[in-house]
Input
Amino acid sequence: MTADTPAPTAPAAGRVAGKVVLISGAAQGMGASHASALVAEGAHVMIGDLQEEAGTALAEKLNADAGRQAAAFTPLDVTSFEAWTAAVESTVATFGSLQVLVNNAGIYTPGSVADATIENWTRTIDIDLTGTFFGMKAALGELRRNQTSSIINISSIAGLVGFKNRAAYSAAKWGVQGLTKTSAMDFGPDGVRVNSIHPGSVETPLTANLKRGFGQVPAGRAAQVEEISALVLYLASDESRFVSGAGIPIDGGETAGNNLRQDS
Ligand SMILES: NC(=O)c1ccc[n+]([C@@H]2O[C@H](COP(=O)([O-])OP(=O)(O)OC[C@H]3O[C@@H](n4cnc5c(N)ncnc54)[C@H](O)[C@@H]3O)[C@@H](O)[C@H]2O)c1
Output
């Protein structure tokens, strides 16, 4: 927080009013959009990311827009369990508790098993899969204490179907789905819901340089970040209190079936 951070005010109204959320990889892209949507609906949001400057600037903007101390930045490298522990502690110290964890940080590396480099395999599994495991492990103590908690793991359609030439990414994102379903079984009795969401193509810096057509997508286009944030907001809120262990595609219909139209 900075000297410009507005003083704490009475709790805001909204669909997630009073909830404290920690989002990994929230300095840009989808994570930044989730932070903005959650703050607009009354949450307190801790932005965890490697990018300190962008993350701090986003927190300041969200605070100014909300007119309350709604967001803060904490440095986080999701491949470090110690960094996760510090991020959870910083969230509780800043906002008093933690009810929602969004495991969003992720990278995307190319290559089939034949040509993916071992370095890219290891880095992708470390960030996309082990980072999610570390986040859940570090946050569980606080999440269990609150009894109405929600973990939202950001997978991909690459975690629902095979994904040509993306061996490491697909393996990591399928792993996130398995970790999600298993954890929903393990922690449901403690009041912690665990779900994964599986976006198709979304317009973010991650996909800015990818060239692809949308002939295989019934909706015929990529998603805007706000469309994914709407699902994150629902899963963070108590509106979804009976939803756990779900892996929800949000892909314009891309994985609904075999679309025989040519990609265009
Ligand atoms: N964009 C898409 O089309 C798409 C589709 C499906 C799933 N996803 C998934 O959604 C998530 C967000 O994707 P995006 O498109 O917004 O990506 P992005 O590249 O725009 O943002 C990713 C963020 O994660 C942060 N990050 C990277 N490594 C980190 C680490 N080790 N520790 C902490 N933070 C780290 C980056 O600094 C960045 O702010 C990812 O998990 C991605 O796999 C994206």
